[in-house]
Amino acid sequence: MSAHCQLTGRKPGFGNSISHSHRRTGRRFDPNIQRKRYWLASEGRHVRLTLSAKGIKTVDTIGVEAAVARIRARGEKV
């Protein structure tokens, strides 16, 4: 599963891990990505979305129909 949110576009960030001796090594900060299944009443089917925690809260606020419309407007397939 790729670590990006279909709704918010949130992707991994990159930085350094710093040890006790202050040596730096590369690391990756992944967003909290979840796979959620929603009922899309207009199409009479379920859709499975890859969302960050913030994306899930956004779907709860605006509704699944509006969220799917935003995802499709970005050119992603649902």
Automatic annotation (TrEMBL):
Spans annotated as Disordered: 1-30
Gene3D superfamilies: Ribosomal protein L28/L24
This protein's name: Large ribosomal subunit protein bL28
Signal peptide limits: none
Organism (species): Streptomyces stramineus
Pfam families: Ribosomal_L28
Keywords of this entry: Ribonucleoprotein, Ribosomal protein
InterPro entries to which the protein is assigned, alphabetical: Bacterial_rp_bL28 (IPR050096), Ribosomal_bL28 (IPR026569), Ribosomal_bL28/bL31-like_sf (IPR034704), Ribosomal_bL28_bact-type (IPR001383), Ribosomal_bL28_sf (IPR037147)
Assigned protein family: Belongs to the bacterial ribosomal protein bL28 family.
HAMAP family reported for this sequence: Ribosomal_bL28
CC annotations in GO: ribosome
